């Protein structure tokens, strides 16, 4: 995955991690990307998660061929990228760390054992640092995904080192479409910070970029407009596709049955994209990403202890924290003696921006019957227009 002859990939794949960030299932692993710029002042772009320090240092040693790095650029202090800084400095103690004021504040917080004589060089917004043939220019990207994040533009070979931006779950050698796992990564990890991503895209808009080198997933070289457009859509909270996500929280299967009936009705009416997700069992992060992908969503939930079945409450909490907005939502509730799920879901949706809740709410009393089917048919009609 080398970028050019002089910008070499040094990252590692993590295929045995159980959960990324202790919450995300990564069926095809994840990569911690790192790059080396071979020049008069050899520069390493970021370290890796300490789970893979040894493998990464071995990669560096091979690339450096006995030379020593002059700079280590620290784009992001989150431990999946900065976790090997101490180990790196043990081996290469004379390296100058390049970061911004916040980088160094967080660095000291994370690493109390950082040697006192560690060399640090603080860069400012837009500042250029020459490595010889290559020149790095730094642009701050606060909250994409932490406050200290900065991206680096290499002017000679026109490479944007984009930190978490344009990252993706799945190691770079995984044969899969970029968008699904990039969306699941973006919405769940950076989704809350759409305005910050928009601000960064404005800054990057003035640069001639030939290659995007993120900290996770593949290096992007061709058809960059496609990736930039996806990021523009995601960060402005626009739906990506016209379609319906039906997310259900069912205790004994009756609410699930209603959700499946509705799915069939929508398909019958020619609604092209319909996706069903079982919030008790399916991947929560994928459900959240799908909610952002489509313009419409149906929430079907059993009443539980006078409120919502917990996986629905959890789903709505995730949506709120990722700033879910500008969508149409329909509600299906179930309850044997006092159905309250609809009211509870509505209340939580009111805390989100620009959510249109359809008035046509379906109430199931215990199990699907003819009356329920009629209500579902009416809802399917409304959703298909
Ligand atoms: Fe991949 Fe925000 O760290």
Which features would summarize this protein structure in a list?
385 residues; alpha/beta; seven-stranded mixed sheet; six-stranded mixed sheet; 20 strands; 24% strand; binds MU-OXO-diiron
Question: What do these coordinates show?
Answer:
- The protein is an alpha/beta fold and 385 residues long.
- The protein contains twelve helices and 20 strands.
- Strands 14, 15, 16, 17, 18, 19 and 20 form a seven-stranded mixed beta sheet that branches.
- β4 and β5 form a beta hairpin.
- α5 crosses α9.
- The longest helix has 15 residues.
- The protein is elongated and about 75 Å long.
- It starts with 6 loop residues before the first strand and ends with a helix.
- Bound molecules: MU-OXO-diiron.
- The site of MU-OXO-diiron has 8 residues, from α2.
What topology does this entry show?
Layout: E1 7-9, E2 12-14, E3 30-32, E4 35-37, E5 43-45, H1 53-64, E6 71-73, H2 79-82, H3 85-91, E7 96-99, H4 101-110, E8 119-122, E9 128-130, E10 135-140, E11 150-154, E12 159-161, H5 178-190, H6 194-204, E13 211-213, H7 224-235, E14 241-249, H8 254-268, E15 274-278, H9 284-293, E16 294-304, E17 307-308, H10 310-321, E18 325-334, H11 341-349, E19 353-357, E20 362-364, H12 370-383
Parallel strand pairs: 5-6, 6-7, 7-8, 12-13, 14-15, 14-16, 16-18, 18-19, 18-20
Antiparallel strand pairs: 1-4, 2-3, 4-5, 9-10, 10-11, 11-12, 16-17
MU-OXO-diiron binds at residues 76, 78, 80-81, 145, 164, 215-216.
